[in-house]
Amino acid sequence: MGKHLGFCRHGLKQFRNGWADGPAYITQCPIKTGHSYTYDFNVTGQRGTLWWHAHILWLRATVYGAIVIMPKPGTPFPFPQPHREEIIIFGEWWNNDVEDIEKQGNMLGLPPNASDAHTINGKPGPLFPCSEKREQIFGYDSCV
Fold first, then answer.
1. Measured between alpha carbons, how far is 69 from 8 in angstroms, rounded to an integer?
2. SS3 assignment, position 90
3. How confident is the model at residue 144, as a pLDDT?
4. Is 76 a member of any domain?
5. Residue 7, Cβ density class (10 Å: 0-12 exposed, 13-18 middle, ≥19 buried)
6. What is d(CA 41, CA 54) in angstroms, rounded to the nearest whole number?
């Protein structure tokens, strides 16, 4: 990528650490290319599957992933415990350089072009194996 980045966490309550929420040049300095940064944040009283992504300014087509906060051992689920859990992350793929796409949109005064493909867990197409014998129920959060 060659740019300094910040990491943004969505859905996580910020307890006295909002200054480390990732927007570069707004709440903190960006992480320099080739360097590391350790995020130390409090998840007391929180649980669930959240997501994070890296970005710089408006450029968000970088890396992303899930944050899973499990309840303390022995804490009952507030719903019937699932048979199995699977993290599903939807993403986008551009065939062109995303920085060029962003520049073109800015020059034309338009939003960037739509992505060339959508991905599920980083893979294009219907590659997620589902069982026909078991009902699949998916809850989702649009995370907009």
1. 16
2. strand
3. 46
4. no
5. buried
6. 17
Q: What is the CATH number of the domain that holds 91?
A: 2.60.40
Which pLDDT score is estimated for 13?
A: 83
State both tokens at 61: 């087509």
Question: How many domains would you assign to the chain?
Answer: 1
Instruction: Indicate the residue type of 62.
Output: T
Helices (H) and strands (E) in the chain, counts: 1, 6
8 Å CB contact between 6 and 24: yes
Asked if residue 142 is part of any domain, the answer here is: no
| pLDDT, block means (10 residues), the chain with 144 residues | 75 76 76 84 83 74 82 79 80 84 86 82 70 61 52
The verdict on residue 135 lying in a domain is no
